[in-house]
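Dear support,

Our group has been running a series of protein-ligand predictions, and this particular one with 2-acetamido-2-deoxy-beta-D-glucopyranose is the one our PI (initials K.S.) wants archived with full inputs and outputs. We had some confusion internally about which version of the output was final, so please treat the block below as the authoritative record. The input we submitted was:
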Amino acid sequence: MASVIFSLLLLVLIAIHGGMCARDVLKLPSERGGHEAHGDHVHGGEGSHLDHLDPSIMIFFTLPDLKVGKTMPVYFPKRDTSLSPRLLPREEAESIPFSFYQLQDLLRLFSFKPNSPQARAMEDTLHHCETNPINGETKRCVTSREAMLDYVRETFGDEVSNFQTISTAHLTVSPTHFQNYTIIDTPRPVLADRMVACHTLPYPYAVFYCHSQETENRVFEVSLEGENKDRVNAVAVCHMDTSQWSRNHMSFRVLGIEPGTEPVCHYFSADNLVWVPTTARNAE
Ligand SMILES: *[C@@H]1O[C@H](CO)[C@@H](O)[C@H](O)[C@H]1NC(C)=O
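Confirmed final output from the archive:
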């Protein structure tokens, strides 16, 4: 019986992806030259094996660095939407099991061999989704736009009726690479007392890991220019209170600071969605 259900699901999935083999949909960073699949920096210590997946958020800086003329090396991977799986409609997404416990069935469903890179990516993603958030943080992995909106609504509460996403945008078509970028305009603060950040995780269909910290964050839009004249309008966040973060969090090692002593900032890459309440000013 179970195998019949899984065969049916597989047919549905193949239909969804326009006849593309499910195996082709899941691409790993190594297969895409590290440009597509992004994990997340996990603010706790556990689960941080996914840290390496998003290079742009491995660059940490502090609040005083957000000023015109400041230069720092960053890698902003370009979004290639033709390679990214789309979010499924909720009904379809929720018809597919999404749990670490069912990993073996899921591997059969997608025809991935155990221990293949695709199997390991699914395992990592499910593990990451089921790891408890750190104190003062909520998180949810979502597989449909509706589920993402539910989480954003729950996080912002009833008093916020409108919200929007902001994302890092590439203003030039040149290929990007790890290089020095200089802040060329005064960073613009985004008015937001709450924010939700959603990052894609590698999986055969679109999975976003969304999370939000109750402590203060400050969001900025930053105009940057690379050494090769690449222009990026980047979204940056500064976490003002890092006292609950693991001592082992990479940012502390990079910046040489202790948890809770100084705000830690980072950029988002273009395929991260940052949700903020819409205020008159942000809507301009
Ligand atoms: C950025 O500039 C600094 C100072 O000029 C240099 O030492 C460093 O190698 C550069 N980094 C990259 C990635 O080009």
